[in-house]
Please model this.
Amino acid sequence: MNRLILLLIPTLCLLLQQAVAGDPPRPNILYLYADDMGWGAIGANGQDERRAASLPAVKTPNLDKLAAEGVNFTRAYGCTVCSPARSSQQTGMHQGHTFADRNDPDNAKKAMRAEDVTMGDVLSAAGYTTGYWGKWGFGGSQSIPNPEIVNIQTLPTSHGYEHVLAELHHIRAHTFFQPTLWHAPAKASSKGDLELIPNSLAAYKNNPDYPDYPARQNHPGYPEIGYCDDLYAFHALDFVRQNAQAYNRDGTPFFALVAVQIPHAPFGEIQTLPEWDEAYRDDPHFASLDSQSQQWAAMVTRIDAHFGHMLHALEDPNNDGDTSDSVADNTLVIFMSDNGGPQQTSNDEFNANHDLRKWKTSIYEGGIRVPTIMRWPAQIHESAQLKPGTSNNVVIDASDLLPTFSELAGAEIPLGLDGVSLAPFLSGATTSSPRQFLIHEAKDGQSIIEGDWKLVRTKSGLELYNLVQDHSESTNIADQYPKLVDRLHTLLLGERVDEPKGFAVTYHHWRGDNNTSANAASNWTDYIYRNEGITYMTDDGAPRLSWIATMHNTTTQQQRAHARKDLEFLALEIGNGQELILHPGTSLTARNELRLLPGAVLSLKDANLTSLRPVSIRKGATLKGQGEIHAPLNNKGTINLTLTHSDRAAIQISGNCDLGGDLQITIQPEQVFLPGTTFVALSAHSIRGHFTNPDNQVMADDGTLFRIAYTPTTVTLTAERTLASR
Model:
């Protein structure tokens, strides 16, 4: 509850700001998520070419239409296998940081922790109506006849999802005819707010407890136990229809995540369905295909048809043939797979991974690059940089969707994520995604992708590929670029890819008194991940690079904490009247993020800041003193520079600097700046924007008046008068 309150407060503030500013309404989100569908299994990534060449091609007319009306992202990534893909997707963390970094039967018990903030958490707190249908993979046992809830804190209902029909264990999802499925909202009080319902049409016939059960398969040959992806799709379709109409009535947006099991094995089960191969009856190639290829193609086309029904429901929510009530224009639709296609006959006969190297479970492109389509007519249109019907090669990752959805919903992006928000990019910003690199792990190694480059680390050594020139990874060019290899290897190891399974980031909070040490372990909370008497991980001691930490003052007075030794975090947030003072010679590292909220003060006394992401100074926060910042800087608050007669700028920024907010000046005792003296106060790799000081002037604390001037890389100050010159 406390976590949701913390999420909700900044969200409400942002929504109020949006309403005052007259920003466009927040989009509905329909997220279609396939299982094991290779990069080349959609028309835009190769099936259209095969069809034109009279080769066997899988039929996906609705996904093809979605691509024609949206954008096909050709360099989008998932993970190597299903558990880390879902964990990374939901938490915005890559495999080096998220708890489920590989497939493991124990992941079902412990992958999502109570402190992990997911898509469902953020969007539910932001006022969205939320639903999840399909393979969740966490929180339940794998027993087919009698599954049980084994960890409440890892359930979808514990992470913001209100409407659920799902399978909780990925091994139990290795059939399409589970006799029972997990459902929410539950009809009665139940563990985890989920109930186990029978997957049987007869069980619901004339049953008043389940009037909304979608008994739509009326063909006399349809099996008694429903094909689970049919059920997921029908439930999701009902949700989309009902909530599209609600959106028209009262503006409440919805988030629907449809995580189907298709086209994961087993394949043969589809042949128990009536007319299972109807879509391929006139296909001249179908009869000559291997039976597994036939089954795979029929599965893909079947789920494509279900997706088509949901897309039609956006156009005509009440299904009366009149599309004047369409919500499609302001609905972001995303189609994506969790990982690449597996090594199987259909992969060969349909070239389902195209010419990418290897397949699911592999660290090479065939294992991690996934088909991804996005459509959002209100934003993705001819005047934007993303044009409908085109392909785009910007590098994106499943971990980007949580921050993207957060920003689109007007919610605070959770602290310290590895993913980056694509919201500005989708809305037509001219700059590309601010991504620095991508991280993936697999049984055969780890990789880092930075722009065109990909470094692969295996037991045999390091491999380097230029993915633009060689996307099939055929030529290792590591020997030609030793400095690049060393730099990428250092970055890769810094992302914790060689940690044992069960390692993950941990969450900590400041509990120290005023004027105490930020380095002392006793001033921080410990982290313990425990479930039903089993302790999975404990992290205590002093701050370290795997911590996501907050320093929030809980008193009514300004509080100070002192760092006299170096501090390291994955991410640090300071706020609520808390000041952190870095004493001379110390460094503060916040590898993923340093965030200063209103009321926060960070004081540099000849100290250093380091981050791989922009340091964010929010309105009402203050950065003061002098020192070096080895990171980009985004200022909307106050920068208070301490000036001395030095050849160095008071603040030296090695990254780009986006200025806003105001500039203040503190002059050390016995320092006098005579009128006409000009010097560099702040330097950066590049400077955009200006301080908001009226007339480009600032008066120091000793009464000296300075005029502010800007160059592309500096902020200069010229003394105009002092108290002595008046």
User: Anything to note?
Assistant: Confidence is low (pLDDT under 50) at residues 9-21. Residues 506-725 form one domain.
